């Protein structure tokens, strides 16, 4: 992770876990990052319109 410039993209490079108890955390991380990226995109679009 130290070499990753955008740390928030960690969920994009980690492997999907095989164990069920770890899968729940993985899915939560993916959903949270998706939401954050959507919000960043919306802010960028709004700023371009100004």
Strand content: under 5%
Cα shape: elongated
Radius of gyration: 14 Å
Distance between the termini: 36 Å
Q: Could you state the order of secondary-structure elements as H and E?
A: HH
- What's the main sheet like? none
pLDDT average, as an integer? 89
User: How many β-strands, per DSSP?
Assistant: 0
Helix content: 55-70%
DSSP summary: helix tally:
2
The low-confidence parts are: none
**Structural class estimated from helices and strands:** mainly alpha
What's the short version?
The protein has 50 residues and is an all-alpha fold. 68% of the residues lie in helices and 0% in strands.
Which helices and strands appear, and what pairs or packs with what?
Layout (H helix, E strand, L loop, with lengths): L9 H4 L6 H30 L1
């Amino acid at each position: 992770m130290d070499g990753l410039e955008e740390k928030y993209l960690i969920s994009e490079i980690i492997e999907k876990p095989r164990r069920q108890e770890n899968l729940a955390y993985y899915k939560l991380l993916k959903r949270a990052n998706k939401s954050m990226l959507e919000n960043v995109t919306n802010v960028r679009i709004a700023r371009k319109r100004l």
